[in-house]
From TrEMBL:
Name of this protein: Branched-chain amino acid transport system ATP-binding protein
Record-linked Pfam families: ABC_tran (PF00005)
Domain ABC transporter: residue ranges: 2-234
GO MF term list: ATP binding; ATP hydrolysis activity; branched-chain amino acid transmembrane transporter activity
Similarity annotation: Belongs to the ABC transporter superfamily.
Length: 236
């Protein structure tokens, strides 16, 4: 579904991605782990078109989207739940979800809204509440639900567990698995919580200083001694 080939991305003169190659096949959950500043979020933003890749190619279902406008990438079935949630704090939960549905067929709105509330019952209870008054966990639920309202075939998730309590993290990961299994949505997951991410993932990549340093199945990376030492706190 998604192919990233030899991608170099810069911020001014600083090279953030240094020839990244990644593949996400249809129906998979693929995770990207790495330390802070490794370039993980930059890769997701580059896939979405901001910043642009200076070299290399990004293909979605075989079509080159490297230079495609962001709105066109969304229309082709890509949605992102960004790091830090970035909901609209002054809008209600319902208004945030309506914003997420802008590129979806209007006839599907009620069905998609019902599904979002089914996945996240708390959002139904809070639908008339302003986004900025929600808890951190509720805001993360809203960010994911807003992305799903666009009816994506590929969902990009950037640090969905960041700053959340363990029980909320568990719920978020359960929903990600449910979205993939029941909605048949392909998921590319960037996470610092390597243990949960690799347990969930079909395959994973490890990024170090803007390069892919390692790849394998989720099970293989969980068992790898170097990964365990660097990212799993001595095996969790």
């Amino acid at each position: 579904m998604l192919e990233v080939e030899g991608v170099h991305t810069y911020y001014g003169a600083i090279e953030a991605l240094k020839g990244v190659d990644i593949e996400v096949r249809e129906g998979e959950i693929v995770t990207l782990i790495g330390a802070n500043g490794a370039g993980k979020s930059t890769l997701l933003m580059t896939i979405c078109g901001s910043p642009r890749a200076r070299r290399g190619q990004i293909r979605l279902r075989g079509k080159d989207i490297t230079q495609a406008p962001m709105h066109e990438i969304v229309r082709q079935g890509v949605a992102q739940s960004p790091e830090g949630r970035r909901i609209f704090p002054r809008m209600t939960v319902l208004e945030n979800l309506q914003m997420g549905a802008m590129t979806a067929h209007p006839d599907n709105f009620e069905r998609n809204l019902g599904r979002a509330f089914e996945l996240f019952p708390r959002l139904k209870e809070r639908q008339h509440q302003r986004g900025g008054t929600l808890s951190g966990g509720e805001q993360q639920m809203l960010a994911i639900a807003r992305a799903l309202m666009s009816e994506p075939r590929l969902l990009l998730l950037d640090e969905p567990s960041l700053g959340l309590a363990p029980m909320v993290v568990k719920q978020i990961f359960q929903v990600i698995e449910q979205i993939n299994r029941e909605e048949k949505v392909t998921v590319f997951l960037v996470e610092q919580n390597a243990f949960h991410a690799l347990r969930l993932a079909d395959r994973g990549y490890v990024m170090v200083n803007g390069r892919i340093a390692m790849q394998g199945t989720g099970r293989e990376l969980l068992a790898d001694e170097e990964v365990r030492t660097a990212y799993l706190e001595g095996g969790h």
